[in-house]
Structure formats: structure tokens, C-alpha cells
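hey so i finally got around to running the thing on that chain from the lab meeting. sorry it took forever, my laptop kept dying and i had to restart like 3 times. anyway pasting the input first so we r on the same page abt which one it is
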Amino acid sequence: MEIVITGGELRGRRLVVPDNIRVRPTMSLIRESVFNSLGDRVFNSKFLDLFAGFGTVGIEALSRGAQSATFVEKNKKSVGIIRKGLEIFDFSGRTEIFNISAEKFLQITNSTYNIIYLDPPYMFDCSDLILGILDKKILADDGIIVWETSVRSNINKKRFNTVKEKRYGETVVLYIEYEESGISREF
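ok and heres what got predicted. didnt touch it at all, straight out
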């Protein structure tokens, strides 16, 4: 399978990934829409790609000018594909890769990120994980969490300050900020 980078310095470049690994990569349409919504927030950001899969979202962030990207993926084969993609696109010096679960990563990290992208298996409820991110303050004060999930997920969105919600067929993308940030943005 080929995944096309939708913007930035690598726009149009392709990343070839195997079909035989059970990963659901973020569709190009969704990636392009998310990054267009984020706009200038991506430039010089510290980007966290949780449940990274093949790393296409983090690679897209780097292509669009992110200062750095951290990839968290517990599947060893997927981590190998992320490493290969970063080498091909020469992004290795601006990245970190953690071959652990998202929950374990939250326990050990002390870093702060401007943008945190979550793309777990669709029926996995990340509500408690997001509350942990907000409680631990790994999201910068003016940062944003972008959560890709299924429209069929039973999520209590009132637990978060969801500033935007966008539907793409069976997929919904939620944009979550700190409530006390007081920053209003157009999406």
C-alpha cells in the first residue's frame, strides 16, 4: 500500500507500507483536512503521534514544518516501518520513537507538546487517556489534542473542551483544548 504525503516539503511523496500489518492508516483526505485546520500551529510545534501506526501523521507534521515529532507505537513491526520512513525522508534527527503503549508513555514522559494526535483502534475509548494528558500537563497551555475515532464510539464529549468536531463518513475528528486557555481559534 502507498501513502501519499498531502502537504509541506514532502507533498506528493509516497511511503510504501505493507498490507499485511493490522494498521488502519489515517486517510489522506482526513490528514489533509486536519493539517489545514491546524494551519500555522504546526510550524515549529512539538508534535506527539500517539498510536502512531505507520507514522504517517507525524511524518506529515514534520513535512509541514513541525520542529520535532515523537512517535509512540507498541507494535514492533510498525515501529520498524516508522524508522524506515524517517530514514527515507531524512527526519531522524528531529524525532523520537517509543515502542511502548500510550499509557506507559504517559507514565514516563516529562515532555510538553503543542499538538497531540491520537488515532487508536476506533472502538478504544481514549477519554481517560486524554484526561491523563490534561492532568499531567504534557499538552502546552495553548496546545491542542486531535482525536480520530469512530462515529459509533460512545464518547462522553462533555468531559473535554471540544472546540471543533468534524465528520468524515464513519470517522469523526475531535479537537480538544484546555478549558482555561481562553484562546479562541477559527477552525
